[in-house]
Design goal:
There is one protein chain. This protein is α/β, with parallel strands linked by helices. 48% of the residues lie in helices and 18% in strands. Strand 3, helix 1 and strand 4 form a beta-alpha-beta unit. Helix 2 crosses helix 3, helix 2 crosses helix 4 and helix 5 packs across helix 7. The C terminus is likely disordered. This is (wild Malaysian banana) hypothetical protein. InterPro entries: AB_hydrolase_fold (IPR029058), DUF829_TMEM53 (IPR008547).
Length: 396
């Protein structure tokens, strides 16, 4: 769909795991982004692709209009099927549109949609991917992009094209030199303000001229200082926006890890919105553990005499096993506890009931249990055993 400042379309609507919003690089075409769409589809993620025009880099109003169009299209899908969202920015894509999307959903600039609709997108945004990005915004940014071999697909640009591009950059520099620094500061501040939306995955190369490694490294380091979850994957030599082509396995593994984290963050947010927060669940588990520990302590207090003891396995064996004594078990002695004296009246009664006076009339025969083990069965030769007779023989 064409919009003021660029165009956007669905690369793929297959998949139910989430949505990747792709902010493509300048002069990119649909066929250039097809491998990335297929990559996201293998993980079950749909793709919404945005292409910004060249002049959108220099006119924030065009970027805001394009961002509103992207958000409107995205909301139509979210209202039908809420899903986690990941922003994937390539090369100059953040300056073309993405930073304006971040400003709109954070309420930093006024858009065409309702605040509740912007908030819905903000709640679903759970991660960001930067491929050969972000690049520093300078007055000759567009010229360097247009003349770069990765964009022209030629080792050297034609002389006419080079002259026209430099003339255009000179004219823009003359007209908007006073605005460039203010927009540049606003651009970087917006990217840093998104540190809390979710994890970051950054792909870069040390020999990339358009996206200098030092700029990207400083960006990643500053995000970490702000508390962000950042993973930086770099190569010594890899072409601009060509990392996936030459390093497919590493690229795929990094994307797989990030979308997995984004899905988990989204699930946690849904639970919190429904009142099922993670800390309350953890607290209930801890309460159960305390109840089990107290039950174990009550079992350990059972003893027949102050001098008696039990050798019981400690419940701490299921913990971190910090104490070697707890790993093997603990020897518990009970003190000042009610006990049964074996020489007392009650002890003598129980002894007379449970222990027969004469065992000559008892047979001990081996038998086999259900599990195959041999046990011993005890029976009397002269009739059944009557406990009442034992009670009559007691000293009472």
């Amino acid at each position: 769909m064409w919009w003021e400042g660029g165009r956007f379309y669905w690369g793929s609507k297959e998949g139910r795991e989430g949505i990747v919003v792709v902010f493509a690089w300048l002069s990119s075409q649909e066929r250039h982004l097809k491998p990335y769409v297929q990559l996201y589809s293998t993980f079950g993620w749909r793709s919404l692709i945005c292409h910004a025009d060249f002049l959108t880099l220099f006119f924030p109003e065009k970027a805001s209009s394009l961002a509103d169009g992207v958000l409107k299209e995205l909301l139509q899908e979210l209202k039908i099927r809420p899903s986690p969202i990941v922003f994937a920015a390539f090369s100059g894509g953040p300056k073309g549109c993405m930073y304006k999307v971040l400003q709109l959903i954070n309420g930093r600039c006024k858009g065409l949609l309702d605040l509740d609709e912007y908030q819905l997108v903000k709640d679903c945004l759970c991660g960001q991917i930067y491929d050969s990005s972000p690049v520093d915004f300078t007055s000759d940014l567009g010229t360097r992009f247009l003349l770069h071999p990765s964009v022209l697909k030629r080792p050297h640009p034609p002389r006419v094209v080079s002259w026209m591009a430099k003339a255009l950059a000179s004219g823009l520099d003359t007209l908007f030199i006073s605005r460039f620094e203010a927009e540049r500061a606003d651009y970087w501040q917006t990217l840093y303000s998104s540190v809390n939306v979710g994890p970051f995955l950054i792909f870069c190369s040390e020999d990339d001229e358009l996206a200098p490694y030092q700029v990207i490294c400083n960006f990643a380091q500053h995000l970490q200082e702000l508390g962000g979850d950042v993973k930086l994957i770099k190569w010594n030599s890899s072409p601009h926006v060509g990392h996936y082509k030459f390093h497919a396995s590493d690229y795929r593994a990094g994307v797989f890890e990030l979308v997995g984290k984004a899905a988990m963050i989204y699930a946690q947010r849904r639970l919190q919105s429904q009142g099922l927060e993670g800390p309350s669940i953890s607290e209930s588990v801890c309460n159960l553990h305390k109840a089990a520990a107290s039950s174990s302590e009550s079992l350990r207090r059972v003893a027949t005499d102050p001098s008696d003891h039990f050798f019981l396995p400690s419940s701490m064996e299921c913990e971190d096993k910090k104490d070697t004594n707890l790993q093997k078990g603990e020897l518990f002695h009970t003190q000042n506890m009610p006990s049964i004296n074996a020489h007392g009246v009650l002890g003598q009664i129980l002894f007379d009931i449970c222990v027969p006076k004469n065992i000559e009339g008892w047979d001990i025969k081996p038998s086999t249990s259900l599990n195959g083990r041999q046990t011993f069965a005890v029976a009397r030769r002269h009739g059944l055993f009557y406990p009442m007779k034992c009670i009559r023989r007691s000293r009472l």
